[in-house]
Amino acid sequence: MIGMKPGPDSIGIVAVSRNCSGVAARACGLVSLEPMKVAEILKDRTSWFRDCRCLDILSVIPAGSAGKIELIYMQTYAPTTLAAARDFWTLRYTTTLEDGSLVICERSLTTATGGPTGPSASCFVRAEMLPSGYLIRPCEGGGSIIHIVDHVDLDVWSVPEVLRPLYESSKILAQKMTMAALRHIRQIAQETSGEVQHGGCRQPAVLRTFSQRLCRGFNDAVNGFVDDGWSLLAGDGVDDVTISINSNPSKFLGSQSNLSMFPTFGGGVLCAKASMLLQNVPPALLVRFLREHRSEWADYGVDTYSAACLRASPYAIPYTRPGGFPSSQVILPLAHTVEHEEFLEVVRLEGHAFSPEDLALARDMYLLQLCSGIDENAVGVCAQLVFAPIDESFADDAPLLPSGFCVIPLDPKTHMPAATRTLDLASTLEVGAGGVRPASEADTHGYSLRSVLTIAFQFTFESHTRDNVAAMARQYLRSVVGSVQRVAMAISPSRISSSMGQRSLPGSPEAMTLARWICRSYRVHTGGELFHVDSQAGDALLKQLWHHSDAIMCCSLKSNASPVFTFANQAGLDMLETTLVALQDIMLDKVLNEAGRKILCSEFSKIMQQGFANLSAGICASSMGRPVSYEQVIVWKVLNDDDSNNCLAFMFMNWSFM
């Protein structure tokens, strides 16, 4: 393939093209499935290619060597609301070689190749698949070696100029198609062999179906195809939010046998959506923050309305108010892919009522949530957070109405050296944590690039409430956009290093001073050394503190407010499952359980008088709600240079997730 970069000739390496026409990627992988099974999976593109809306085999012609030629029409989703979707008209040839290898070749039918171009479809732009396919070789002793080549021309000139990097990125193609195919096959192989452990009574295939339905429902909402029953609703004079409605939800949710959440006496589904450009914000970091800190952008009243649609008598249309109702979330893991690039989970939103009129909103709610692409070191990865309300029964055929966020990097086609880009992609193919580059090796210049964020929220409505729901949805989406913009500014790496980072990021003078205070106060109060270092210089102390194996964290000392965390070392951040940026949003009483809070209260006067106390073994919770066990906690007062109280330090010893 002209322009294809040379990569190391070994298993698990992905190469991406630099300057060939269109975008292209190739990969080679080893899986423990037979060639026929691998071919069957690869041909079922809708099961693993999340951007594939449909694939229709229009005609099949037998060929020699037990082969066949297939005429195929495929539609793919548009990743944003700013450009049209793509479709392909291709010919696929499958045959078996003498050594037992299977070959699947595919390319578009065009006037240049001498074939019919196929009828055009409204709402779609015709794209071209250049020679692509799979070579599947059997291995001695079982299994297969798979060679994959993907090469497409997405007609970049038909999209707005600002979005063209999205259609010129071979790295995005490699992530969405090439690597997705390999990962899916490896997932099936491990499920088949029984290596994948799954909780509860649900089989991996059922959980995989939930993930596919969430993605498909979100993509359907973003694209709003006319043949699915979607139509645009007149705006309010401002073009930032698009409102579309679907009065026939069974048309685009026909595969779901349970449609109980939709009104039977008139109404349908309403979608509010928008796309926006972001500058200097890593997609993975943004989506991780949105996942871990839902209260920063979500309105509890709107969540309640969405959840009420699952019941017979929905509540009145809420109107968003600043902050909504206070709530906390607990994330319950359901499943993850073999390489941990995608998580399926249930989110419990704990309701609270502070006045009689809020009692109806006080019940807990549940969301089925899919999160992917939150590895900051992966290249060309689209980060996504999609969720849908569910009820407590959570049946396999539960109706899903997904909403969420998708962030895609707009990476110019010519940037990094060829070898670096090949190895970056290769590293993400390795199974487990060993394939992730250290943070110190990450591309620190990548954050100067832009990304496009697409947001879509879906609601059910009844005929007489349509206009009110549309007004609420429009107002809510604008509120979410404003919140996301504030979050994006706060977590931008340049912003962190220049302002927020000065208080707590390792390496700053303030952090070195705090490290010195923590170590000196521990020695003064307990008579022992927190750790031994050859030098008492601030940077040496800070380095030892940061890499200490026990979780060390500091809390504010304020009599008129709940203690919040102000600093944590790396082990502390791991235990709390948070970042330095988000640490100050976490309160101590949310981490300690009731028994831990009682013990701390009983020992508090001793801590203030003697300077420290030892707390017995117990259980606490991370910011994500995961239970954490620990053998002992040492608490001591941290004094500043004037011997005044600065904060409380906690050291959780021998902690582990339960």
Could you explain the architecture of this structure?
- The chain is an alpha+beta fold and 658 residues long.
- The chain has three domains: 11-193, Alpha-D-Glucose-1,6-Bisphosphate, Chain A, domain 4; 224-253 and 265-352 and 363-412 and 448-491, 2-Layer Sandwich (Alpha-D-Glucose-1,6-Bisphosphate, Chain A, domain 4), CATH 3.30.530; 509-657, Beta-Lactamase.
- The chain is built from 15 helices and 27 strands.
- Strands 1, 2, 3, 4, 5, 6, 7, 8, 9 and 10 form a ten-stranded mixed sheet that branches. A nine-stranded antiparallel sheet has the order 11-12-13-19-18-17-16-15-14, with helices on both faces.
- Helix 6 (283-292) crosses helix 9 (466-491) and helix 11 (509-526) packs across helix 12 (538-546).
- The longest helix has 26 residues, at 466-491.
- It is globular.
- The two termini are 50 Å apart.
- Mean pLDDT is 79; it is low at 1-12, 319-326, 413-447 and 495-505.
